[in-house]
Amino acid sequence: MFVVLLGAPGSGKGTQAEFLRRHLDLPHAASGDLFRENIFQKTKLGREIEGYILRGALIPDSLTIAVLQERLCHEDARKGAILDGFPRTLEQASALDDLLKTLQKRIDVVLYIKVPDEILVERLSQRLICRECHAPFHKVYKPFQLCSYHKCHGEHLYQRVDDRPETVKVRLLTFHECTAPLIDYYSQRGLLKTVQGLGAVDEVGKAIIEAIPKARNTRV
Ligand code: AMP
Asked: Does the pLDDT of residue 149 top 90, yes or no?
């Protein structure tokens, strides 16, 4: 089963992906995490993409597609994956269709988590991420309590450089310009389910789970 999580930065994709990972027993493939890991490890790719992330701009499609192709060809993604943050452009969406076709797989559902922009800015300014497992937290609404891997006690939490208000504005503009067209793209193919992302984390999670079985058999 391949699930795509679509939504603006701060809409809760990472939080819900983590929830879905456990619920569906599927790997969580987050393009942003893969890029940040490369930056942290100072790889060649990491050096190449760092500037884009700092500016809140999208990484070029060719690099992004190559990274995700590599990720989806891992053994653990044979049974499917939860795609978080990919695709973000029509070109990436088309590349994903081609890749899944080659693997004789297809997207089961695209979940669009909808949240108003003003809420997103506030959420991101208070967000903390675990350096080790990439789980997101919120200083007020979702403070660190328990590591889902039982590995740490919150000592790896940090604030992302691109969560600063000026960069968040660029990321939101980029979302509306480059990623929002995917809402129509997937809606026209009967794959899109919209979930209101404003409620409590558990409520949004419940709505997401409810959206999955109904759409599970939807085919391109
Ligand atoms: P995220 O963790 O999903 O918020 O992504 C953080 C940053 O990584 C984005 O602002 C982009 O610079 C880059 N990025 C992540 N996913 C993609 C993608 N699918 N296409 C291009 N750039 C991406």
From this structure: no
